[in-house]
Write a structure and sequence with these properties.
Blueprint: H1 10-18, H2 26-36, E1 41-44, H3 51-66, E2 73-76, H4 80-93, E3 101-104, H5 110-122, E4 126-129, H6 131-138, E5 150-153, H7 156-161, H8 165-172, E6 180-185, H9 190-199, E7 204-207, E8 217-223, H10 226-239, E9 245-248, H11 252-264, E10 269-272, H12 278-289, E11 295-298, E12 313-316, H13 323-330, E13 340-346, H14 351-361, E14 366-368, E15 379-381, E16 386-388, H15 391-399
Parallel strand pairs: 1-6, 1-7, 2-4, 2-5, 3-4, 5-6, 8-13, 8-14, 9-11, 9-12, 10-11, 12-13
Antiparallel strand pairs: 15-16
Helix pairs in contact: 2-3, 3-4, 6-8, 13-14
Length: 400
């Protein structure tokens, strides 16, 4: 099957050909005909399956056909980064088509807020928004969504995890009841199904199973104490100094601390987290994408929805809280049939979380020996799935 089989409007097909799009992914093959036929959808599909194009392409084609001059589509996304990425995808797909879009998200200045206000009142065809920023506009009273034909909730599970349930309900109260609603989620817990019952009308269901890490990813782990992590990390970066490296940490405080430590060690590194101004975040991402920046340290804000190619190495400085997040983190490397390496640091407190990851992917991840100069680390018992503290080594380290 090819994209030409969907009979999109000619302007959209021309854009796809210029971008090198030939064959649809499974989520695109299943979702596009349903959306073109105006049915609601609840779809379980993780990052990297092509879900953004799965809903954008049929919507853009319908906007071209209808010659809409008003706000036709509202896409709600959990983070600024995902909103920006969706906006960039629209610009690419609609390069030859008269379709306008605007991303609305927090952290911008007054001029940006005024630009957003004009788009909401005079009409961009597609609005991509984070919940909090959109509600700020809705509370002003000038937003008119009476002509909305399509509502898309992207990464709905992440939005609910971030506490946006009430915000989503409030936003939906401003929309016409007669609309097409599309809900995409990487996981499908009960709270997502409850949300779907509230906003979807007799939806078609699509389930693209959570895929394992790409075959091109070499996965391995180090069993370490927290006191050994920084020196181990510096050694790995020194050996891989030519690679683009993405490091995931559990908190923004750790990201800031790690950025300082790596810069002191002469590593060309920068951190990205929620405390950064949006302009600075965009600048850091641009430098990383253009390879002016070798090492990017981030929280899980980048594990989903960020399309950065040519990342050779992903390091989980902390084991992710949820096993599914490991899949998303590791999925940042070995994209588009390339190869990459994913390393995880496991401390004694994270052993059970890591065991869940191995259960999810269906195989045990290779445990590498830590360099001798770091001293002995915990001993991982694969039979009991627990670590044994090497107390003699720890005591010796403290005495030194």
């Amino acid at each position: 099957m090819t994209f030409q089989d969907f009979n999109f409007e000619p302007e959209l097909t021309e854009g796809l050909l210029s971008m090198g799009f030939k064959q649809p992914t499974p989520i695109q093959e299943q979702a596009i005909p349903i959306i073109l036929n105006n049915h609601d959808i609840i779809a379980c599909a993780q990052t990297g399956t092509g879900k953004t194009a799965a809903y954008l392409l049929p919507i853009i084609s319908k906007i071209i056909q209808s010659k809409s001059q008003t706000v036709d589509t509202l896409i709600i996304a959990p983070t600024r980064e995902l909103a920006i990425q969706i906006d960039e995808a629209i610009q690419g797909f609609s390069y030859f088509a008269p379709v306008s879009a605007l991303a609305i998200y927090g952290g911008n200045d007054g001029a940006s807020f005024e630009q957003e206000r004009k788009a909401l009142t005079h009409g961009a065809n597609i609005i991509i928004a984070t919940p909090g920023r959109l509600i700020s506009h809705l509370n002003m009273g000038y937003v008119k969504f009476s002509q909305i034909k399509h509502l898309v909730l992207d990464e709905a599970d992440r939005m609910l995890d971030m506490g946006f349930n009430e915000d989503i309900s409030k936003i939906i109260s401003f929309l016409p009841k007669q609309r097409q609603s599309l809900l995409f989620s990487a996981t499908m817990p009960n709270k997502i199904r409850e949300l779907a019952k509230k906003i979807l009308n007799n939806p078609e269901q699509i389930n693209i199973a959570l895929s394992k890490p790409a075959e091109g990813v070499t996965q391995a782990a180090y069993v370490v104490y927290d006191t050994q992590k920084n020196e181990l990390l510096k050694g790995i970066l020194k050996e891989n100094h030519k690679e683009s490296v993405l490091i995931f940490s559990g908190t923004k405080e750790k990201v800031k601390e790690m950025e300082r430590e790596l810069r002191k060690a002469g590593v060309n590194a920068a951190g990205i987290h929620s405390d950064l101004e949006q302009e600075k975040r965009n600048e850091v991402l641009r430098e990383f994408k253009s390879r002016k920046l070798n090492v990017l340290v981030a929280t899980d804000i980048l594990s989903r929805g960020i399309d950065i190619d040519s990342i050779g190495l992903v390091i989980n400085y902390d084991v992710p809280r949820d096993a599914e997040d490991y899949i998303h983190r590791v999925g940042r490397t070995a994209r588009a049939e390339t190869t990459g390496i994913a390393l995880t640091f496991i401390n004694p407190d994270d052993q059970y979380k890591f065991k869940k990851i191995e259960d999810l992917i269906g195989s045990e991840i290779n445990k590498l020996p830590i360099p001798a100069h770091l001293g002995a680390g915990p001993v991982y018992d694969p039979q009991k799935h627990r670590m044994v503290f090497n107390r003699r080594s720890q005591g010796a380290k403290k005495r030194r």
